[in-house]
Amino acid sequence: MSLTTESSTNFWLTRPFSERSTQIFLGVLLAALALVTLLHVAVPPENPLHIGAYTVNLFGKYLSYALLAVAVDLVWGYLGILSLGHGAFFAIGGYAMGMYLMRQIGDRGTYGHPVLPDFMVFLNWDSLPWFWHGFDMAWFAFAMVLLAPSLLALVFGFLAFRSRVTGVYLSIITQALTFALMLAFFRNEMGFGGNNGLTDFREIVGFDLRSDATRLGLFLATGVALALGFILCRAIVTSKLGRVSVATRDAEARTRFLGYRVERFQLFVFVVSAMLAGLAGALYVPQVGIINPSEFSPIFSIEIVLWVALGGRATLYGAVIGAILVNYAKTIFTGVMPDAWLFALGAMFVLVTVFLPKGVAGLFRYLKRRKREDQTTDPDHQRTPEEASA
């Protein structure tokens, strides 16, 4: 192995873990996964500290949303692309998983057909559409979870970035893409269940989805996927690719003048982000038990952007915080006043924009900076070697 290759390998293996924020985030995430598992498995159901299967499922849903938010923060926070279409990548990954889960039902469906899903039998279809073939195999379905949204992002990104579409125009185009896909998936003849979508799932890779153990396994798998996705994004933003992305965000014309093929960097990061969004959708579907065209809704894509803005963009961990806080608030609020949730979300966004323009993560950074300033101005404070050399 050459010195250059070895140093590059060491960079990708060690650099993402070198930042304290990454270490803290991964530590908190792993501790949360362990705590939920312990309270679900080891604590008796009659104990107030016991976490039931429904709550575990709910936490898994939050974590899948957190992974989706990280994907959006990668392109918006570090590349400057405000994508209002990541709900489409999320939904496509979810549909790929849903197609696999539907094929696993077999003859146990309502109509007892060994091959066709129930909705196809109801619509009097006599054969399986060509694009459903292969989804009875787990490896093929899991590959399509990553490939389908990545290919869509590759084609869309190639055309958009090559044409140098930027700013609000790119945001509008991404939203138009999502809306067009939503209308298409609502049609029964598309072969994706129409308005009702795909549901009534029974098992995944042989495990009963109604089992508490399977639900816990999906929760843990989502947590691990979030950790790996976070590490991947952190590795990207701390590399040369990330530095060029930030330069493109701040001064695209100047970055082009320096000789960088900006559209190549944009396309790569956009495709990686879409892949993570698709993975989030695939982990979401077996935990909620349904996937339908509402996931393509432009409102959902806008909501994802609000998660990132509230948590603090260009931090990655802020996106996770925002996704979990907003969706927890949504769970509580919709249980009391479901019709007023969108108004509450808008009010929350306005308040954070006014009082916390850099999001919750920005508040953490501000408090940390104030603490450091107080320590350095304290006459009794003993200066560290790092502070003395600064």
Automatic annotation (TrEMBL):
The source's domain of life comes to Bacteria
Q: Where in the cell is it found?
A: Cell inner membrane
Record carries keyword Transmembrane: yes
Indicate where this protein is primarily found: membrane
InterPro entries to which the protein is assigned, alphabetical: ABC_transp_permease, ABC_transptr_urea_perm_UrtC, LivM-like
**What one GO molecular function would you report for this record?**
branched-chain amino acid transmembrane transporter activity
Q: Name one Pfam family in it.
A: BPD_transp_2
Residue spans crossing the bilayer: 24-42, 62-95, 138-161, 168-186, 216-237, 265-284, 304-328, 340-364
Give the membrane topology.
Multi-pass membrane protein
UniProtKB keywords: Cell membrane, Membrane, Transmembrane, Transmembrane helix
Record's GO cellular component terms: plasma membrane
Q: Which NCBIfam families match?
A: urea_trans_UrtC
Q: What is this protein called?
A: Amino acid ABC transporter permease
Organism of origin is: Halomonas campaniensis
